[in-house]
């Protein structure tokens, strides 16, 4: 098993620059529904190498041009979507059933980002997500600097 320091060396070797983040949304339970769309803020930062993620806005701003792997996961979320500069990239949904219980969901994308591009998770109006227990996360890392 690779240790964290070895993983950091591998990322640095491939990218030439370290950019990676992971954050959890932790607000103590159900978050929403709200009457308007929201950017989901992940207020518990686990890793933020390269300082691209802003825990006050929930937005990752690309510090360098390159290809990034971005992923988000949630528990009990409905209609969350990954946005790049305000445009939909990928989304998740929940199909209701007769014996419906909260589901886990997630999605990922490889994105070519220019320096300054903004990526965030969108929570649509009248939707909610569970934000407790480190179950709702947003992560990304630089795969290749261009």
Report on the architecture of this protein:
A hairpin with a 2-residue loop joins strand 8 (81-84) and strand 9 (87-91). The protein has one domain (4-92, 104-145): Jelly Rolls. It is built from one helix and 13 strands. Strands 3, 5, 6, 8, 9 and 11 form a six-stranded antiparallel β-sheet that branches. The chain has a five-stranded antiparallel β-sheet with strand order 4-1-13-7-10. Helix content is 8%, strand content 47%. The protein has 146 residues and is mainly β.
Fold topology:
Elements (H helix, E strand, L loop, with lengths): L3 H12 L4 E5 L4 E3 L6 E2 L4 E6 L3 E2 L4 E3 L4 E10 L5 E4 L2 E5 L12 E10 L4 E6 L5 E3 L5 E9 L1
Antiparallel strand pairs: 1-4, 1-13, 2-12, 3-11, 5-6, 6-11, 7-10, 7-13, 8-9, 8-11
Summarize the structure.
The protein is 8% helix and 47% strand.
The residue-averaged pLDDT reads 87
Task: Summarize the main sheet.
Answer: 6 strands, antiparallel
CATH architecture: Sandwich
By helix and strand content, what is the structural category?
mainly beta
The count of β-strands is: 13
Low-confidence stretches: none
CATH topological fold name:
Jelly Rolls
User: What is the 3D shape?
Assistant: globular
Strand content: over 45%
Q: What is the radius of gyration?
A: 16 Å
Distance N to C terminus: 30 Å
| Topology as a string of helices (H) and strands (E) | HEEEEEEEEEEEEE
Helicity, in percent? under 10%
């Amino acid at each position: 098993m690779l240790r964290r320091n070895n993983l950091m060396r591998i990322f640095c070797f491939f990218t030439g620059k370290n950019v990676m983040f992971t954050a959890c949304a932790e607000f103590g339970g159900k978050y929403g529904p709200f009457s308007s769309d929201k950017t989901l803020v992940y207020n518990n930062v686990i890793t933020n190498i390269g300082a691209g993620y802003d825990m006050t806005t929930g937005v990752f701003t690309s510090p360098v041009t390159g290809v990034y792997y971005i992923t988000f996961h949630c528990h009990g979320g409905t209609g969350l979507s990954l946005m790049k500069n305000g445009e939909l990239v990928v989304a998740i949904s929940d199909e209701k059933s007769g014996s419906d219980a909260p589901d886990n969901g997630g999605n990922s994308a490889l994105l070519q980002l220019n320096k300054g591009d903004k990526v965030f998770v969108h929570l649509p109006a009248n939707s909610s997500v569970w934000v407790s227990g480190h179950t709702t996360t947003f992560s990304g890392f630089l795969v290749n600097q261009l």
